[in-house]
Structures are given as structure tokens and as C-alpha cells.
Amino acid sequence: MLVTPRINVDIGKIVPVTPRRTDSATLKTQNEICKDFYEKLYETASPVPQNTRNSSQDKEELPSFEEQEVIKCLNEMSKNKAPGPDEITSDIIRIGGAPAISYLTKALNQILTLKEIPPSWNEAKIIILKRQTTSAMERQYRESKGETMAQRGW
């Protein structure tokens, strides 16, 4: 007969837990905890191949973006969202009107033509936000990832 060990837990008693790294060093600050977490989260186990397209894919011509498509995407995006590293929100593009939409459409078409995603699209501002609730058993923080406005519509 298998006997499972019983764990006595005092309900309502908060037991402090000290997080540790894999090398058994104790983490001291919230910044260190976050840094360690996101380094592990975003590290890649294997290098990403630079050119994964074959010759038949290179010969295919992708249809270019139309201004009406860009307008439709802008209208589907949430309003009053935090900007990404470029500090441009969808609200700013909307306020910019036809010239801003035309510029964004040209930029997106240039990305298609060059077949290269801008390096800045790999960047994001990560801000730790405290939750409204005060429950000790819940996670106290959630992630907010700021992406560029163009990334959200891509």
C-alpha cells in the first residue's frame, strides 16, 4: 500500500519563501527576480536560422498593403493603449489622418519589399504592474508588454 506524506498547513498563515536561482544563490531584489525570470523566458535554446526561405518562396510576390486595409486594422485596434519603444500609439496615427496612414502604408510595403522585419520590432518595454487585489495567495504582479503600434497590426 502506498502512503502519501501529509503536509500540515496552517490556513491563513503566510510563510515567506525565498526564491533561488538554479545556482542556489538567493535573489535579493524584485529587479533581480524579474531580470532572472525574463532572461530565462526569452533565451533561445538553439540559434534562429537567418534565412529560412527557399527559392520558390523568394519568387512569390506578396500583395502590397492597401490604405483601406491599414485603416481597417487601425479601427480594430484598442484605443488609449500604452505606446511601445517608438512612443507612437494607434491614436496618434488616427489623429494624423490621411498623411499618417499613407506613410504607414508605404512603410509596411517597404518591409514586404525588403523581406526584412525591422530590428526594433524585437524590442518591448516590460513594465511590472501591481494588481488591484490584495490577496496574499495571488500573484501580485502582471506583465505589460509595450509593442510598437505597427507590430500590433502586423
Describe this structure in words.
This protein is mainly alpha-helical and 154 residues long. It has a domain of 91 residues. The protein is 38% helix and 8% strand. It is built from five helices and two strands; from the N terminus they run ααααββα. It has a two-stranded antiparallel sheet with strand order 1-2. α3 packs across α4. The longest helix has 25 residues. It is flat. It starts with 29 loop residues before the first helix and ends with a helix. The N terminus is likely disordered. Keywords: Nucleotidyltransferase, RNA-directed DNA polymerase, Transferase. One of its GO terms (molecular function) is RNA-directed DNA polymerase activity. This is RNA-directed DNA polymerase (Reverse transcriptase) domain containing protein.
Query: Helix proportion of residues, in percent?
Result: 25-40%
| Lateral arrangement of strands in the main beta sheet | 1-2
What gyration radius follows from the Cα positions, in whole Å?
Answer: 23 Å
Mean pLDDT across residues:
73
Largest sheet descriptor: 2 strands, antiparallel
Number of helices: 5
Distance between the termini: 58 Å
N-to-C series of helices and strands? HHHHEEH
From the spread of the alpha carbons, the general shape counts as flat
Backbone structural class: mainly alpha
Q: What is the percentage of strand-forming residues? A: 5-15%
